[in-house]
Design brief:
The complex is a heterodimer of chains A (291) and B (588). By secondary structure, chain A is mainly α. Chain A has one domain. Chain A contains 11 helices and 2 strands, in the order H-H-H-H-E-E-H-H-H-H-H-H-H. In chain A, strands 1-2 form a two-stranded antiparallel ribbon. By secondary structure, chain B is α/β, with parallel strands linked by helices. Chain B has 24 helices and 12 strands. In chain B, the strands form 3 sheets. In chain B, strands 8-9-10-5-11-12 form a 6-stranded mixed beta sheet, sandwiched between helices. In chain B, a hairpin with a 2-residue loop joins strand 1 and strand 2. In chain B, helix 8 packs across helix 10. The chains are: A mainly alpha (291), B alpha/beta (588). At the A-B interface, helix 4, helix 9 and helix 11 of A face helix 5, helix 11, helix 13 and helix 15 of B.
Chain lengths: 291, 588
Amino acid sequence: MAMFLQLLFTGMGIGAVYALVSLGFVLLICAANIVNFAQGDFAMLGAYLLVLGLNVFSLPYPVAIVLTILLMAIFGVLFAGATYWPLRFRGALPVIISTIGAQIFLENIVLYLYGPVPQVLPGVFNSPGFTVGGVFMDSQYLTILATASLLVLLQYLVFEKTLLGKKIQATNQDKEMASLLGIPVVFMILLTFAYSAALGAVAGVLVGPILFVSVGMGGSIALKAFAANIIGGYGSIPGAIVGGLLLGVAETFGAAYISVPYKDAFAFLIVLAFLAVRPQGLFGEKVAEKA
Amino acid sequence: MSVDYAAARRWRGVLPTLGALVLVVVVAFLAPAEGYYLNIFMQAATYAIAVSGLVVVLGYCGQISLAQAAFFGLGAYGVAIGTTHLGLGFFPALVLSAAFAMVLGLLLGVASLQLGGHYLAMVTIAFQEILTLVLTNWIGLTNGPDGVRNIPRPAFLGISLANGHRFLALCLVTLVLVTFAVWRLKTTRLGRAMQAVRDNELAASTAGVNSFGIKVISFGISALIGGIGGGLFASGFQYISPDQFTFSESIVLLTMALLGGSQSPFGSLIGTSLLIILPEWLRFLKQIYLAVYGASVILLMVFLPEGLWGISLQRARRRARPIEGEVAPLPLLAATNNGDSSEVLLKTEGLSKHFGGLKALDLVDLEVRRGSVHALIGPNGSGKTTLINVVTGLYRPTSGKVTFLGNDVTHAAPHRRNHVGLARTFQNIRLFRGMSVLENVMVGAERRHNDVAMHPQAVVERALAALDFVGLRGDAHRQVADLSYGYQRYVEVARALAASPDVLLLDEPGAGLNLTEKHELGELLRRLKGHGLTILIIDHDMRLVEQVADYITVLNFGRRIADGLPREVLTHPDVVAAYLGEARHEAA
């Protein structure tokens, strides 16, 4: 039982990271109808910025984190300007490809600047954690779970209870109508990009101390987040969160009970199973194209 | 003088291909027999083959595959394992492994292509990642991360190809043949169907293209070509390992296709060569090379959306000339017509379509008789377009029945309904914007069961006749996107007419036209009526409807409120009320 709970705890921790990146993914799908292949690199860049702030500029931990997230939000806007804006009227495919280009660019710039040697990030707390009922509660995993829950709650409150959130939702649903109602649609889209990048940065900062900070970390997280998205339901916000958690848990149990080398395959096998049986995902709806 | 349409010539490109075959064999023997430069050549040739596969699936059919390196890897491992473990000859191993790649491609396609484009992207990523894991971990079969060594090179017709020159010649010859096949594919019926699906899936399906089937086929072809490239790669380098076939290699192959131009196999040749040679030229950039590469992908998408070869495609389009030659007039009455004007061709019974709580259609009965022009009118939101969409199969009805030519088609797919003789136009024009006017109409003429469908020359002539009928013969060579809005409507009408339909459905053909254009449309409709074509038309222009309609059906809030001859219907109190408001309230 303790083993089961321990795996559940670890899986939820990893799953929360997937969920955050997946959430950023979904928000861009809703706001701009783009599938952003560089989503994982938001996490990678966030982690590297934190390394830079802590190791090179020797900033205090909280300051470095706040700066990282702010910088990544600004970066999100720049990213939109480069990959989405010039191509926004040309359909989904060109934007997808330009985000693939951005992924190659970002990963290799960081590789050039930092080299292939993985960097090490310290955890948020000095204490390694504590044991409850035979389950070791790692402090970093607890931080991840707490932060992710807080962010999801916060986002829910902003989206449902504030005018800004309603405006973002209106923009997502019908840009033309939103702009006719006087909502600054462009600003809302850029804001979504900023927020999406910041979410990625939070995920990177949180997962950095668990994994090593490396150039490739973004790619594998993004693939899992994308998978989480399909499992949860394409374009569904609750789906992204539940899908991410589910994947994290499934992967952890799969590695423990079935096979370690094939750990990364479980996510994709689950996706294939979902596509065969329930392609609209857990929370997705089938939408017919209007003739 | 009969029509001479270059793209339909039977022997087109055969001579240059033969020339290219000789040339590449010479090049192969001039290349160094081994070492670095031979490897560069070999890599470029085998990669270019794999990239041609992407031209089919991405360039022609518009579907993103992110697993081309996986199919390349399947071909490579198939040949490697087949020749070293199973004792197969190279060519049997190549055929088997390429076929295996194709079967997997077809299976993945069937699983994902019924859904939107991003699902194929996801499925291909998943497949790519799983394959990499299997290649790395199934050590008994693949020898794991160490890879397979000493892959033999074959003999062909008794000539040993073990020597580097000779094997390179085999790779280049295959490349020329694949390039030729992919190039010719673009102007075949299948190729046009792929491009139609890419440009407008919905319109393609109502024009008789089985869009799901076409997507699966193009993905299968792409996987097959990828497998062939991979098989040659394995024997060319004689050593392979899992890291050569990863997700990032798939991205490299995709970039090659895009850089050169995914619409043409020549583009993919250029793109592949550049990206293999470029690292040599960009050596001064050292490690930053890949970052430059990533940035150029973005710049390319922004500034050269059709890739390098796109420049040449655009020039060819500008230089296209009208297509000369005489064609027979458009036969407007389908072969099934027996002139019996009491026969009901299209019938709906108790047809309902609910969107949630909204009853867009509520128990609608409709009978369209042979040779009649039947108008469907009603205020905005009364369910007219919904009815057409249910009749053509784009929507599934909540209940009720649709009968066409005596057959129950209620549950038939849109392309099947087109095959038996139902053609339509759309309220918001849906053309294949990447194709020429003629090609758009040819897709219509290639409806299965159409008398000309299987004869390329006859298809061209039928399409030209249809364009002649709507007055656009002189614009056949132009790109549809270059035509004015009004002319684009006529192209849609011509596409439907070229299919020789039994019933033509026109969904607000007058929408967005100016007065002169509306007048011309009226003329066109009268001519069609004069030929006895059966038409179901939606329009708001009452004058137009009065002039051409034999019968009128009026819908309001999804219900049929009147049905019959124009004079009776247009004076019917319910119809007047629906259009002008309730007279009784004003009187009270």
